[in-house]
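Render this sequence as a predicted structure.
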Amino acid sequence: MNTIPISQEPKTAHTLIRTQSYINGEWVNAASGAVFEVTNPATGEVVATVTDLDRDDVRRAIDAAYDAWPAFRDRTAKERAVLLRKWFNLILEHKEELARLMTMECGKVLTESRGEVEYGASFIEWFAEEARRTYGDVIPANTRDKRIVVTRQSIGVVATITPWNFPLAMITRKVGPALAAGCPVIVKPPTETPLTALALAVLAEKAGFPPGVFNVVTTAHNVEAGLELCENSKVRKLSFTGSTATGKLLMKQCASNLKKISLELGGNAPFIVFDDADVDAAVKGAMASKFRNSGQTCVCVNRLYVHERVYDEFVEKLTKAVTTLRVGNGLDGDAQIGPLINEKGVDKVKRHLADALEKGARVAVGGHELGGLFFQPTILTDATAEMIIAQDEVFGPVAPVFRFSDEQEVIELANATPYGLASYFYSKDINRCWRVAEALDYGMVGINDGMISTEVAPFGGIKESGIGREGSKYGMDYFTEIKYMCFGGIN
């Protein structure tokens, strides 16, 4: 495993950096003048000092969005689609700047950041097209003198609370359908990665979105800001991506006014390799899914279950692949694994690793800190269900490998978790593929594929992994209300 030198003077994305919040078409400071620092996790250097809004400031953003709602919802779907398309083009035109900015504040390697810009932009393109396909229905009436029509209308002001691990795509996946449906949005990015959100606001402004339609509120007052977004009745919909614990809290807070919610929460993804699998393909899929963004994604493989007949072969090939990974500053072109986001992330990885080793696991490769927030990609063998890592999402570059002997056993092991976001398995048997895919208790199943995210498919989980779906034609459903109109007295 290679560690590459950390650059001391990384190139920056100057033209898109903003440090003020964006409210009602204006760049504004906090009324209090408060600010917070954004640091580069690879170097510890301060990237920028950003305005720190309080609850009253957030309320001003809500009021601006609410005032902008009537005019924006009354625009034709085609007009909204044109705005989204302009925004999409601008995002791609600034791909390199956005990618570098993203890498500076969240640490992911530059190749992945470039991929995220394209992935995030794809949602804007998709929903620009879906804006004109928000169809209703004409329902056969129950009597001859009536006509029944069903339409879909904008749900209203939408608040989004987004995570640091995908600073761009988690915004566009939410605001794309909201804007397409005629909903003004308020984006509250995390304190770790507000700069990418503000850069998107720069481009949204250039695209021509009216004042109040796209707002970004930066704040370190997460509890106060969250309460305002949940309890303010002018916000009709909240969309959140993050931990299950925080999602449950937001759900309780939204209950005060029965606000509609979408929650994309934690996962504990199993990755199953059956004895009839293409082992080389399975290794490739595991590498792509496990170590993307240093293991810091909600759909990352967390538990690898490998049939005893191919266990040794799989571990050997996976270990060999992991030893080639290069760890370093994401802005260095050769880096494949960047830093973890903060000390809390490093401590969690160390805690999971120590518990697994205490309970009998062995390190096949890795297992050490590399200084700062960097941690070696690690493979653990002889993992068991008693280990913390079997039940808790590690959110880091540690892959535990479990043995299993039969199909029903591994399905039960895979489903033995309160989470149900993503799952993966490899098999050449088409009958098994159908059986296992239907038996896995997850919202998404990758069959002989470790990379399942795309704008054309519904992203989301079941059980304690969330409520609702993002992306695809189904993504529009969560930003519209169904209205039934009954026309009587028709001759």
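Summary. The chain has a mean pLDDT of 96. The CA atoms of residues 354 and 468 lie 36 Å apart.
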